Amino acid sequence: MTKPPRKPSKPLLGESDALLRSRPRRRRDPDQPNLRLDPMPDRIEPCLALLKPKPPKGDNWVFEIKWDGYRLAVHIEPTGVRILTRGGHEWTHRFPAIEQAARQFPVATAILDGEAVVLDEQGRPDFGLLQQSLGGRGGKKRSSTALFMAFDLLYFDGHDLRNSELSMRRHLLENLVPAEGQGDIRLSEEVEADGETLLRIACSHGLEGIIAKDRNSAYHSGRLGDWLKIKCVQSDSFVIIGYERSTVARAGIGRLLLAARKGKTLVYIGGVGTGFNERNAYKLREKLDGLITSTPAATVDRKGAIFVKPQLIAEIEYRAWTDDGKLRHASYKALREARDNASVYLLDT
User: Fold this and answer.
1) Lowest CB count within 10 Å: 134, 139, 224, 312, which one?
2) 46: helix, coil or strand?
């Protein structure tokens, strides 16, 4: 699908055939000046991609595949390895294979930004498989099948790289995480292709979409537009505010009722009645029945609807929006993990 990785440029650290290893500590020669080292951040708020309908044009944009998983930061520290979720929760114990791979890295300190994924039989990331490997939403299982796709390097051997250009950070990352590696930490490779061409290829292979990044940008936390996401099929998080019963559907769920945020309120944006399998449908019904309330969280004119407290967030695929603000061709993917800090879709005010 992609072109072979470009021939790496001359490494910035060490010879090309040498491992990037930190030198053992030695007493400092008092005749030599002190070199400034940056304190290692305890946590870095992630840079988030801004959704756009089309890929950007221009030589300053580089492209990657969009990975459908959990955003993680892998901290390699003098005392060990920490794996943090997007919301800052420590999940080191949930990803033992990624932790072990990080311990083997030839570097004293580093912070890698990336995505935990589980690949299907065709090598595509599958969010449902990732959740199953962790025991579902709220599960406590350790995932033995999750991989970490690294796409940025934020701290490296005592130096904070966030103010460096993306091209510099990627250069160091590619020397640390080899292209075409098959370990539990792999490189999310930049693809040298026109954005529209890559998006078309990604969609034809059943992938979620692509990411565009400004190669000259520093690393900015938040959603500022340095990174863009372009999706083949729209996929966003919505609040479950109720459901409709069915006598033939799995677990008796005929349709979930969904809401998006508009300011500080929730607005009903339609429902979803497909995408459930037998396993997730019964688990979902059990959670819903524990949240039943007589007071709807949003205005819904659906006869016979059963309302629930707005505590569950679902990831929903859909093709478009109708003129009256409802989802079109929606399909249920999974419940989002609360600690993944999923953002509920925000309607324009």
Assistant:
1) 224
2) coil
Whole-model pTM: value is 0.68
C-alpha 5/C-alpha 62 separation (Å) is: 13
Amino acid (1-letter code) at residue 24: P
Give the C-alpha separation, 187 to 190, whole Å: 9
Task: Give CA–CA dist 240/273, Å, rounded.
Answer: 12
Q: Give the distance, in angstroms, between the CA of residue 142 and the centroid of all CA atoms in the same chain.
A: 18
The set of catalytic residues is 66
Go through the domains of the chain in sequence order and give each one's CATH number: 50-231 (3.30.470.30), 234-340 (2.40.50.140)
Comparing C-alpha atoms, which of 44, 142, 33 is closest to residue 93?
142
Tokens standing for residue 18: 């040498």
Rounded to 5°, the CA angle 52-55-61 comes to: 115
Mean pLDDT by 10 residues, the chain (349 residues): 45 41 49 72 96 91 94 96 95 96 94 96 88 76 94 96 96 90 92 90 90 97 95 89 86 92 93 86 91 94 91 89 85 81 81
Report the distance separating Cα 292 and Cα 287, nearest Å.
9
The Cα–Cα gap between 63 and 213 comes to: 6
Beta-carbon neighbour count of residue 135 at 10 Å? 13
- Answer for the pair 191, 153: CB distance below 8 angstroms, yes or no: no
Strand partners, 328: 320
Task: For 163-294, list the strands marked E by DSSP.
Answer: 185-187, 209-214, 227-231, 234-245, 253-262, 265-272
Angle at 187 between CA 82 and CA 25, to 5 degrees: 50
Query: 334: burial class by Cβ within 10 Å (0-12, 13-18, 19+)?
Result: buried
